[in-house]
Amino acid sequence: MFKKLYTICFTFLLLLTACSDDNGVDTGANTDDDGAMQEIAAEDRLPLFEINTNGANIVDEPKIDAQLTITEAGNITHTGAIGIEIRGSSSQLFPKKQFGFETRDDANEDVDVSLMGFPEEEDWILYAPYSDKSLVRNHLIYELSNDMGRYASRSKLVEVRINDAYNGVYVFMEKLKRDDNRININKLKEDENSGEDLTGGYILKLDKADGFDETSYTPFNSFRSIYEPLNAQAGQDINFLYDDPDAEDITPEQKTYISQYVAAFEDALASDDFMDPAVGYRNYIDVDSFIDFFLLTEVSNNVDGYRLSTWLTKDKNEKLRMGPIWDFNLAFGNADYCDGGATNVWGYKFNERCPTDVWQTPFWWDRLLKDPTFVTQLKERWTNLRASTFAENNMIGKIDNYIALMETGGAVEANFNRWQVLGQYVWPNNFVGQTYNDEVDYLKNWISDRLIWLDGAIEGL
């Protein structure tokens, strides 16, 4: 059944790209781009990423050689070699592709560099908003998370050209990985298989499996929870993928430790004594990180939240943490299935609405919300955030700033001249506006309604 559903979705999305080339890049000139851009002052334009592949097609593995030039306010701020590939899962089937790239030196070896003022690293992402016609959903939620003191990928709005062809507005982002300036946890080495060394750091994911079969979870790439997801009706399981150390590098001892640690947490949470400070779940998790993850996911009603693109970390001698957040392009009302567009439902209750979906939410959140102490902490955090990061005027103000930045530089017009999707349904839009302003107004109104609903719903917990 799962394979059948996957095939149907895959075929539907494939139809969207039937007329695009391998890279989703128009090899002809953008009709308005050159003329429009000449009338805009250099300092008003979004940063421009120009990628030259010398005519080669960008593919999904392996990375191909290319040159990158970044221009900011009319000045070239970076030029150098890169390796670049198409990235993403279902988004790969959209004609506007997103890319992962690594910066390289003159010898074509990976090299850490600082791009756009971000801390030095070698792995980067150019995310391509396509079904998100506001262009800003991911950029917004990542900024909100960072403002809360929870690391999320640093991001900036940019424009991209590939082989002299304009390819639209992108979000330049950091790839999530272990690094002092990204996911700042201990690097676990292959010879660290006992004692204190074995306790961290680990990065896990709840996500689709890599490869064509996105449900292919094996003992090599993951471990399985013994607890079935609540309300699931198709025999689904919860699987934790190894990210760092990855499936190739993690040792048997490390697999045993992290799987047993997560199992101990789940056992404690499921037990009758789950609230007991001596033996309960708090001995295993960083509660504050779970609360912040919950609130970021709920404020946006991320339909993929809790079950896909969900990251967890376990540092040396530390407890399990939720986050960083990732991939919110279908959040803030941009999904027409499983109440993804609703402002008046709990995101964590996804399984009740879609009990046959392949990927389900773990039982954790229902159980945590049965602990009065957890609920009290959550309410206090919500009240604090509503007066600051989650204040409506703050969130709407950020959106207004993004829009002004893009419109002043002509980027909105150029993007939708290149990708003429306004007024058209693009999977899985819950709302289809006839104009860009319609899309932005929908996003703002959705946020306003969501905040009002959450005020009452959280108070009623």
UniProtKB/TrEMBL annotation:
It comes from the Bacteria. Keywords: Signal. PROSITE patterns: PROKAR_LIPOPROTEIN (PS51257). Coiled coil: none annotated. Pfam families: CotH. Residues 1-20 form the signal peptide. The keyword Signal applies. InterPro entries: Spore_coat_CotH_CotH2/3/7. This is Spore coat protein CotH. It comes from Dokdonia sinensis.
